[in-house]
Amino acid sequence: MDFAQKLSETVALLERIAAEYSPAVFANSFGAEDMVITHLLAKHQVAVKIFSLDTGRLPAETYTLMQEVAVAYPTHPIQVYFPNTAAVEAYVNEKGINAFYESVELRKSCCHIRKIEPLQRALAGQKAWITGLRREQSPTRTDLGYQEFDAGNGLEKFNPLIEWTEKEVWAYIRENNVPYNKLHDQHVPSIGCAPCTRPIAMGEDIRAGRWWWENPENKECGLHVKTAAVSILK
């Protein structure tokens, strides 16, 4: 499939989601893929709302981009969800400010407080959510499809860029002057919370800089747990 056809099918899928699964939302974490989808939603005036999760520990570059996006895409404002203050305070006071480095269990607990619980609030009352996941991003994502039923959240989940390559993502960004996170220029292809993200070396997997102290098989925060979804379109 050439890129022009792939792009056309991506737009068609976004429009179908808006038409058949309203209300639907797009989860934007301000990575390159998410910026492509944000641009497509705005350019084609697709009636899908956008939200983002502010964990409280995002890099400065992400906040800068967040403001740029608000100016660039006024028709699609981003609703920001924050973690529960009491839960964050309890975790930090009981476990430590950077306890997530100590074990997978503590890291996942931090992710649950800062990401999963806010995500559940963002998805409440929705029929579908859209992500920027791509199959080549990670070993944990190789069997994802375009559409899945997210049993954990009880709604449909769509991955419109699942077949896109990294080269195609960046070609679209450059050709359409799409704003992007400047951490990408510092060899950070996958961006999350500041203390859990580092640049990668040449030849490393594109998600090697996320939770780099853990095994690749563990490198998910829980937002995209495959066991909670059944793929229906490959």
From TrEMBL:
Keywords: Cytoplasm, Iron, Iron-sulfur, Metal-binding, Oxidoreductase. CDD domains: PAPS_reductase. Pathway: Sulfur metabolism; hydrogen sulfide biosynthesis; sulfite from sulfate. Its main location: cytoplasm. It catalyses: [thioredoxin]-disulfide + sulfite + AMP + 2 H(+) = adenosine 5'-phosphosulfate + [thioredoxin]-dithiol. [4Fe-4S] cluster binds at residues 110-111, 193, 196. InterPro entries: APS_reductase (IPR011798), PAPS/APS_Rdtase (IPR004511), PAPS_reduct_dom (IPR002500), Rossmann-like_a/b/a_fold (IPR014729). The active site is at residue 221. The keyword Ligase does not apply. SUPFAM superfamilies: Adenine nucleotide alpha hydrolases-like. Pfam families: PAPS_reduct (PF01507). It is found in: Cytoplasm. Its cofactor is [4Fe-4S] cluster. HAMAP family: CysH. This is Adenosine 5'-phosphosulfate reductase. It comes from Deefgea chitinilytica.
